[in-house]
Every structure is written in C-alpha cells, then in structure tokens.
Description:
Blueprint: E1 3-8, E2 25-26, E3 29-30, H1 31-39, E4 48-52, H2 57-63, E5 70-73, H3 82-89, H4 112-122, E6 126-130, H5 139-151, E7 158-161, E8 170-173, H6 174-183, E9 208-209, H7 213-217, H8 227-238, H9 246-256, E10 267-271, H10 299-308, E11 316-320, H11 331-340, E12 345-350, H12 357-365, E13 370-374, H13 380-387, H14 392-409, E14 415-422, H15 430-440, E15 445-448, E16 478-481, E17 486-488, E18 499-502, H16 508-512, H17 515-521, H18 529-533
Parallel strand pairs: 1-4, 1-6, 4-5, 7-9, 10-11, 10-16, 11-12, 12-13, 13-14, 14-15
Antiparallel strand pairs: 2-3, 6-8, 7-8, 16-17, 17-18
Helix pairs in contact: 4-6, 10-11, 11-12
Amino acid sequence: MRIIAATNVNLDESPIGTRSRLREPMRGTPILRRTLERACRIRGVETVHVLVPPAQADETRAILDGLNTRVETHDAPAPPYRDLVRTGRFWGLDGWRGGIGALCVFDEDFNAALLQGLMAKTHAEAVVSLPAAAPLLDPELITRMIEHFQSNIELSRMTLMQAPPGLNAFIAARDVVDQLLPVGMPPGAMLVYQPNSPAPDLTGREACYRPDAAIVRAAGRLLCDTTRSTDRVMRVFEAGGADWDAVQICRWLADQESRHICESPEEIEIELTTEDQFDQRDMFHPRGDIVPSRAPVDMATVERIAESITDADDTRIVLGGFGEPTLHPRFSEICRRLRTANPGSLCVRTNGIAVPGPAEASLFESPVDVVEVTIDAANASTYQRVHGLDAYAKVMATIDRWSALRTERQSVRPMIVPSLVKAFETLNDLEPFVDHWQKRLGAYVVRGASHFAGQRPARAVTSMSPPRRDACRRTYSRMMILADGTVTTCDQDFQAKQALGNLRDSSMLELWNHKRLDAIRNLRHADCALCSTCDEWHRP
C-alpha cells in the first residue's frame, strides 16, 4: 500500500488563526524544520510532502534545505469548516478531542480538497496528515499508528489516536478523503454523537490506535501555535525532552503541567453586572438577594483587563458572573474593547430572555465567538420549575432569531451553545435536551450542579469528586472578576468571601500571584472557609 505523509504549512498564520511561529527558531532551529526532521524518520511512508502557498515556497525550501521532503505549492481555498474549527477548538486546546462541537485536533489543519489533489498526483492510497508546528512529534509513535492502520485496513479505512496535540496524527485511506470532501466536514465529525443514528464511539473500535496509557491520559497542547503551548514546548526542551519519546513527554506533562502556573490566567470570567431577570428562586445560578448588589463594571476596569491580555493570544474571556451581562449599559463597548485586545476567544453567558437590541447586535458585530444560553430544561414546565420564570418561549424565540441572523450573515460566529445543569430536577430532560440541540445546533454544554461550597442546596445527582483531595485545578488557570473590580479565588465565591483584592488598586499579575491563591494551590485552606467545603476542586 502506498502511503504518503503531508504537512499543511502557512508561515504567516496557524490553522487556529493565531500568528504562525513556524519560521521562529527553537534552540537555534526553526520550528518547522524540527517538525519535518522528525517526520522524515517515520517508517512506512514513501514520501513526505510539505504543502505551501506559492508565495512561501522559496522560504519554506530554504528552511527545509537538505531534508528529504517535497515542497508542493497550491492555491486551494480554506476548507468550509475552518471558522467552525477555529471558534470551537479554542475551548479545548489542551486535548486531542474537545471544545465546542466535539472537534478534534486533527480537524485543525485537515484540508480534504488539498489532500485529495495531492493523493491523485502521487497515486497514493493513504495519507498521514501531520501538524506543522509539532517539534516534539515522536516518529516511532506515528510508525506504530501506520502499522495499526495497515493491519486493520479491511475493518477501518482510517486511524486516529488518543494523544496530546503535537504528538498526534491522522491517517486516512483515499476513499475516506473522497467521502469527506463533498459533505464539507472535518474528520472529527465522524466521532460526534448523532441522535438519528447512534453508534459506538470510534475510540472503542478498530479505527483507534491505542498507545501507552500515559499517552492516552495526558493533556497539554504541544503545538507551537499559541503563547502558552509554545512556552510549554520550550519547557519540555529545557527539561531535556528533545530526546524523549512520547511516553516520557506525557509523564512529564502529568508530573509537571498540573502544577505549572502560567504568567496570566488562561480563562478570565468577568461579571459585568448583578442585574438579572432571574432572582433567588433560580435553583442553579446564584441570583437575587443572595448576591450582593454590585455596581456595573466600569470601563477603567475593563481597560486594565484588556491591557493585561495583549501579550497572550490564547486567553479565553467569559462575560458572565452572577448577573445578566447584556444588561450592562455599555455592553457593546466592552465587547469591542475586549475584542481589540485580541483574546483567543470571547464568550457571553446569557439567559437569553430579553437581550437589548444594541447588545444583541454587538454579539454579531464585535464579533463574539460563543454565546452560551443557560436554558437548563427541555420544556417550558421544567424551565419554570428550575428558574422560577415563565420565559421558555422567549428564550426559544431568541435562539431562533440568532440562528436566522447567523444564516443571513453566513457566519459561524457566534456559536450558539445551549447549556443545562444536570441535577435531580433536570435528569429527565437530559436526553431530550442533548438530542434536540445536537441535531439543531451541533453544540451544547451539560454541567454538574454545584452547591457553591455549601452556600446553596446540594442538587447534584452524584458526587464526581475523587476520593483524595488535591490542589484546586481552577486556581492554576482561571480568574474570577466581579463587577466592582474585586478579584476572588474562584467562581464559587459569589459573595466575595475570599477576595484577593481589587483591580482598581492592584494589577492582575499581582492578584494572580496572591498569597491566598498560593495557599490554595498548596492545599493550605486554613483561612479559606469556602475551600474546605468545596467539591469542585477537581474540575479544570
């Protein structure tokens, strides 16, 4: 069987829309060259092809000079799912699978039209699609994937693998590429649950090559295409990982990354206001009298936040908190300012009941990447029971209107993501909720019910906390900013009982390295009453 390897290269822009770092040196060698040096050591492929736009061909050849690769030029358009992948994958960058819409890492640079043309030109029967920004790619691991693919070719025409981004690849026979092209969907779509035709997940079938357990369990992006993932790869090199295999790298991720504190939070949730249509009758979201009234966030605070995220191109911003963000009088201006600060992704969490016209327009014009709608029900009866409001029809009308606007604009953004809190009160709604929104929008979120560290009634169906307490994962990656500028330890603290300080008086960097957060990260909870009763510490 004739198998080729292909790497899709753009020296200016990464597959997820960040700036390309492929020409940048890592320990004196360009990242692209490091990746292709390893790709050339993969056994089982006849030729390694590097696909580039014509204007970048000469520079790419210079970077790869002396390597046994073939630089191929193309003028193929971006795949139709490019914006979908760029928007959805930002919420699951550290896993091979995940993010909004259950996308996969190999969806990021997979271009069916481009690969089909290459396979026709080379008469290849299968292709190994490799990422370009993967200087830690393990040739032996990919070789074993190819061997698995060849051994199971009669049962499966493709092979995927559960491994961190940067160690992963995707193998497809020519007929699979041919089938993907007309439907205009990435290969990860084959792993998505389809209510009309449920089937076993491909990770439990012959299509999945199963590497060492350390690789399967590991998380952490090892592609040099974002600020934090590039820094992570550099730290692997500094630890001696240039000569490690995939198992050693993944053990390092398990040992070191879970306790690594980034220079700034990966995800920042901002409460714009405590005003809301929901009140204290809401079962799942702290609202009404139990939430201290806080004045709407001022633009000076927003400016400080915006300035603090300009150095990282993979920061996620959530406008949410314990109120309805679209009711802020300057919501549109806030969205525009945060958008120009270049966050990796901007999300708005709304109840969708009565979004003001200017705020609604800004969701599309800013643009916002993701709009989460807190429905928590599959019918009007459950909605009124859990929220204390008869507003289900209004929310459905809002989603209908937004869906129509997206179609009219022919835009992926904002992705509309209905969410449901899984609790005793919503358990019967869970299956119809998932099936309906998967068919309708291709995206949804299901969360476990939280008692907010004992401040609210316990409504969870079952506890998901591991038996042994460990350091709170959220304190390593997430920051909660309340409307009055107060930064607190986490999103469980709606009354600011564990405040770290205020952005009016301190920088984000100072608060991110606050001694109280350091104590929580090191399991010292003596002066953190909420932490001792919280069971959300294991969630990322």
